[in-house]
Amino acid sequence: MTAQQNSTVVAPPEPTRSPVGIERRRHPIVELAKILVTCLVIAFAVPTVVHDANLFLVTTAVIYAVFAMGTNVLFGWTGISSFGQAAFFGTGAYAVGLTKDHIESPILAVLVAGLAAGVMALLFAALAGRITGVEFAMLTLIFGQILWMLTFRMDALHGENGIPAISRGELFGQNLFLDDKFWWFAVIVATVVVLGLAHIRRSSLGASMNAVRDDPLRAAALGIDVRLVRALAFTIAGVVAGVAGGLMAQQQGLVTPEILVWALSGEVIVMCLIGGMRTFWGPAVGAVILTVVEHYLFDKLASPDFFVGLALLVVVLLAPGGLLSLTTVFRRVRRRVAR
Amino acid sequence: MSELISAIIAGIAQGMPLFIVASGLTLIFGVLRVLNFAHGAFFMLGAFLLATMLSGGADNLAVFLLAALAAAAVLAVVGVAADTAVFKRLYGQDHMITLLASYALLLGLEGLTTMLWGNKPRSQAPVDGLGGSLSVGRVEVASYDVFLLVVGLAIGAGLYLLLQRTRYGKVIRAVSTDELMARALGIRARRVQAGVFALGAALAGLSGALMAPLLSVDVGLAPTYAIQSFAIVIIGGLGSVGGALTAALILGIADSLMVSYVPDVAGFSLYIAVALILLLRPQGLAGRPVGSAA
Asked: pTM (2 decimals)?
């Protein structure tokens, strides 16, 4: 309250947030090349270290990483809260499930998944264009719940049993049924998505998203169509969630209503938060950490929720910028020590 | 016509419990500006505590009410603990951060409940004498719904009187409007905030305890009632107790009308009603903070 009153008299201090968009800019090709190299290193390195069931787990983690990075377009880039991203993840998964007899190419299937979720997200954003903030988050949550319940009502979706026997298909003569082949497929799709996201982040649309996040009024005054930017961000997040959901359907070979459960919408936010919403890779790191830790630690316990909640609470209270934000803290401490 | 009337009466009976659950949430938001997703977990704990204390049955109303109040008292303590450990540090921060922190708390409490009580759902029989139904004209109403209606109105009136007609209410409104100024005038704002959080959590616990006879008592209650009470509070206007009452009744009636005239939507009619109202009136129905009116 008082801060607002002061700001009319004295110029407000420059925001001290760690900016996503204002870091030192390198040539776009250099930046995209760096991302490509990072992805390639991961793609080659992981199968030499982990095998079999563990490779399956890491593939799952990569799929969640894609989902989380897409979700962070909302939370971290544009400042939109959504508690219903599982709706779009699930839409993608069910799109792959429903078209399993008609589409053979796994790439085409993933594209259809992204398209279906993207259309769904665009429609939602168009309908809810006037709504922002907590009310918007509530509406996304409700939308997710309605979709989840629809899976039990619509005969084509087969309720609790879901859609089984989804084939991973073949690509360039490679049978993706083998986990080490599917690893490559998932990583290549993930790389394309990440490159796309990096490109958007550098574009004027990315800058507009950050402007809308930091101050919607000022952004509007600068001529940015705030509603359009929000709708685009929501659609992009929807497409990415759909692609990730499609990959998940292929990997698991089965889609059930579990994939639309609201807890998944919460979990993907936890991933973003643990890794750090203000960093590009943060959500991916958070997704990998949470997936692996949940598998090895929490699932062995009677009530994993307690520990997930506790971990999240610690992060929110002690490192609200996420784990990746700790690197800047370390850097600051080191600088002070050096001085 | 009689179908319409019975649907409306059923809707009111359905809306009242929703208000009882949401009242604590809207109080906490109105005064502390904290969106407490863990409210659903407080509700769930209230139900578990009551079912454990009475071990499933209840002989007379006095014992039942005493147990419900005891559950509320425990939750008041839990509320103060949660406020001190978590929310105090987050006052004035972005809604998103408090929402996530309270989500974490919800998960944690859910997990803790599973550890303490196990996975098996419990059931709680209604109090002897309140299990039957009354007939109003040609319409049958469950006695327990009438009981909840009375309790809900009492809670609504109590909150109104507390906030508008007592000295403590004035202090609460002062802290809600301008914490800094209230502090400057010698009000121990920190104590008031803890008190409000305790009251809000106690209301959640009380509602969970009172509704236990109608529900299957398991951890699934936490997210369900977190979502429903959030819907009520947002539609009623964040922080408005009167708005929450209106919203709960409107939603209850809309829900019951939809179920009786469009049976296909049964199960998610409440969600559809919330979505429609939000799309038509994004600012909510009332949208006045606690400071201006109850």
From this structure: 0.83
